[in-house]
Amino acid sequence: MASRDEHLTNQTRVLAEEFFAEGSVHKRWEIGQLLRSSRYCEFFEAAERGGKKENALCKKIPFKELDSFQKKNVTSEIQVIKKITRADKLHRCQHIIEVYVNGDDLLMILERLTGEDLFDRLSKAEGGLSEDEVRSHAKIMLEALILLQQLGCAHRNIKPEVFKFSRPDELGELRMSDFSFGYQSDNPNKLIKQLCGTPPYLPPEICRNQFYKPVLADMWSFGASLYVLFSGTFPFGSGDKLDPLFNRIQNAQPSFSGSKWKSISEPAKDLICKLLKKEPEERLSAAEAVDSPFIRYATLRQRFRVSCFALAGESSGTDFLHVSTVCPNQSYCDEQVDAVSR
């Protein structure tokens, strides 16, 4: 009869597939200092022995101590992130490297994103982010959401804090991270009923405790995130009491008054309004949003700049093929549970 350790190992081997690693994590990885912790997991620095890979992140999950629902969430997280890692050719999301079992603990070795998150970037920007900066970030965020939707996945906790830069300098690329509430289904029309996410970004259907489509909930949360990136405030306020906040989310409309919004273009406001639709089915999909006038403006302008550079190169006899992508990495560029992220 298999021991509990063997049972967890066999379960994880089937779940993680090619990402499962036999043996001890310490054979390949040196686990460093604790970076942060939550109620259900701890994050440590990790470096591959021999320096073959850049520093990674070790997520330690005390699997034995989790209840059945929490174990289901961990299973879903691994299912989602392994699908993403296989398909993410543009590298718009954080990737998984390996999964280990160490006694009663499950260890996920993840790509470590060492740059700041979008909320930190917003907080440090004097006068806030420019419209061009928000547009460039939004395009990358949408490309990540498109990937998830193509894979039948949803994030379920979209907010600026889960979009992080891969490194702290100007070469850092923006990527979606933290798939702790990740969800996947082969049925895109499946409805679920589960309270998870961060209150100011929750859509009306979750606030009403209704069944909902996770993909459409993500699009509302993206719209709320876009509002925050432009204004530095939540579209329906915040506060310690959830009932007044949930009432505003269900009944109020986002306000575009105030000095900050005077300089924001109408296509930007229009996109936010089409994402913050009270009726889920009326919201834009990620593919529709990336084709909106607000996002397409950046693509058209980028192409125009490339054409101008190419013409200048032809007239001067200089080879300008190296600018054909024009700074692609520039930062401007079914059950009710208490699972609300704080």
Automatic annotation (TrEMBL):
Molecular function in Gene Ontology: ATP binding; protein serine/threonine kinase activity
Record keywords, A-Z: ATP-binding, Kinase, Nucleotide-binding, Serine/threonine-protein kinase, Transferase
Residue intervals of the Protein kinase domain: 29-295
Pfam (any one): Pkinase
The UniProt record lists the keyword Thylakoid: no
Top-level taxonomic group: Eukaryota
InterPro entries: CDPK_Ser/Thr_kinases (IPR050205), Kinase-like_dom_sf (IPR011009), Prot_kinase_dom (IPR000719)
SMART domains assigned to the protein according to its UniProt record, in alphabetical order: S_TKc
PANTHER family in the record: SERINE/THREONINE-PROTEIN KINASE
Protein name in UniProt: Protein kinase domain-containing protein
